Amino acid sequence: MSKSKQNPQPDNNSTLEEIRNTRLEKVAQIKELGLNPYAYKWEISHHCQQLQDTYQNLENGQEIEVKVSLAGRILARRVFGKLAFFSLQDESGTIQLYLDKNKIDAVMTNIENAFKNLTKLTDVGDILGVKGTIKRTEKGELSIYVGEYAILTKSLLPLPDKWHGLTDTEKRYRQRYVDLIVNPEVRNTFRTRAKITAGIRRYLEDKEFLEIETPVLQSEAGGAEARPFITYHNTLKMDLYLRIATELHLKRLVVGGFERVFELGRIFRNEGVSTKHNPEFTSIEVYQAYGDYDDMMNLTEDLIQTVAQQTLGKTSVEYQGESINLQAPWRRETMHNLVQEKTGIDFTVFTDITSAKKACEEVVIKDYEKYNTIGELLNQAFEQKVEETLIQPTFVTDYPVEISPLAKPHRSKPGLVERFELFIVGRELANGFSELTDPVDQRQRLEAQAQKKEAGDVEAHSVDEDFVTALEYGMPPTVGLGIGIDRLVMLLTNSESIRDVIAFPLLKSHSVAIHEFDYDEEKQILRIVFENGGIYQYHDVPSNIYKGLKDAPSKGQYVNQQIRDKFGFDHEN
């Protein structure tokens, strides 16, 4: 075996495919040594951050004969003859590995040239198991003084910091696993998210709320004004909808005798994608019998304040340059008053739609002519002129009945309902209302919604006959609440986009239906335009790969097998 064969090392200018081939050669050599490059198990006694915290006061040059066993991914390697220093990352953090040839070779007598094999057959990205003692180097770096190691998983692809970098935002979302490896702050975001959802559940359970799961597949899509996803059940031979809310089934549970129920789960709405919207998102809905919307506003502010304190240790947060105070009490103001503050229009004085539209025209409410009720115009004035100005926590109360088909009529304000929405940093975080319990009124409102749906409004309700039947058996006075978990996590983690807080957000398909492609031989850039409109530039693509694509009978299959995930790329659009 030649020297280069024994210790294959990629050139700094190697292509991704060349690096992969080199690492495959190393896999073969590890197997030749009688070792398994894809191990089954490694016993772990400690994590990196645990050791950093425990031995933070260890003096420079001091060593402690405490035996530890760790496992993690190699993030950096420095080899200096008989000494080497690796940086090892596990879920908790990083720590340095102090690798001494004399010690490793003395301990691992069952493997010839154990230290040499470690330095020659490992790469950044490999997962390594180590055993050793604790040592702080003369330069002050806390380290594991390694006596024994095992290559647990040999990586075939280099990490982004050794390639083109993880600068493409879409690539970060599409290859979230790589994003998590190289960006510790991303891992912290999802760790915080888990603490937030656990804290919400703990808070509600302490208040004697019971979590009960409701169907994701439903025969009627209801509980919100939203366009549903439609699927088909082969056995039952019927269309079904992915739920757009958990509301109607949770209220059935209240009818059945459960006084405090909630569900935290996934919701699906066939709508647009933006920094604030994702078609698949997480919400929590909470229902409490014998309460009204004032009770639920109190619960909402206490819940969010408590979870922020438990998760972050504080009730003030920074969000995109704004300092947000979550300490209760929060501002409560009616939609009418807020609109009058910003526009000067008092919608309570209007008795006809014509004068209301004229007032909207004067303050430049867009598309005002499309709406046929004073309540709808009020809501448009709020959304266009007020919503984005509500930075500090604000409960907006008393909504028009026209946009609230499931809420109870206001007890003292005709034409309005007892409903609130919570706004923070200019976006809605929660929605709640005293629930409509009159089955006759509910049927009339749902039938009005059904007429809108027949007229082409894809977000309007259908009449859920079974839900109306449930109300006819009698639902006690009830208040409900819905909180957008993703938006709450955005606020508490200072995340600009909803995709930053969803581990695997829905993205446009990497279609393999190719529209056209071209190749820059000098720069070795292969540019592919896919039928779905996606345009990608693949880097460092050898001319033989381009020729193979030209000659391939199935170009999509060739891209999947020979190009995708094997070359770095930039996304043009």
Give the structural class: alpha+beta
Uncertain ranges: 1-7
Q: What Rg do the Cα atoms give?
A: 30 Å
**Overall pLDDT score:** 92
Bulk shape: globular
Counting DSSP E segments of at least 2 residues, the number of strands comes to 22
Helical residue percent band? 25-40%
Tally the helices: what do you get?
A: 18
Give the key terms.
alpha+beta, 8-stranded mixed sheet, 18 helices, disordered N terminus
Protein architecture, described:
An 8-stranded mixed β-sheet has the order 6-10-11-18-17-16-15-14, sandwiched between helices. Strands 1-2-3-5-4 form a 5-stranded mixed barrel. It has helices spanning 3-6, 16-32, 48-54, 101-107, 114-121, 169-174, 176-182, 184-206, 247-255, 293-312, 335-343, 353-362, 374-385, 439-454, 465-473, 485-493, 543-551, 555-563; strands at residues 63-80, 83-89, 94-100, 127-136, 142-153, 210-211, 217-218, 230-233, 238-242, 260-268, 280-289, 316-319, 322-325, 331-334, 394-400, 416-424, 427-434, 478-484, 514-520, 525-530, 535-538, 569-571. It contains 18 helices and 22 strands. It is globular and about 90 Å long. Residues 1-7 have low confidence and may be disordered. The chain is of the alpha+beta class. Helix 11 crosses helix 13 (374-385). The two termini are 48 Å apart.
What is this structure's SSE topology?
Elements: H1 3-6, H2 16-32, H3 48-54, E1 63-80, E2 83-89, E3 94-100, H4 101-107, H5 114-121, E4 127-136, E5 142-153, H6 169-174, H7 176-182, H8 184-206, E6 210-211, E7 217-218, E8 230-233, E9 238-242, H9 247-255, E10 260-268, E11 280-289, H10 293-312, E12 316-319, E13 322-325, E14 331-334, H11 335-343, H12 353-362, H13 374-385, E15 394-400, E16 416-424, E17 427-434, H14 439-454, H15 465-473, E18 478-484, H16 485-493, E19 514-520, E20 525-530, E21 535-538, H17 543-551, H18 555-563, E22 569-571
Parallel strand pairs: 3-5, 6-10, 14-15
Antiparallel strand pairs: 1-2, 1-4, 2-3, 4-5, 7-9, 8-9, 10-11, 11-18, 12-13, 15-16, 16-17, 17-18, 19-20, 20-21, 21-22
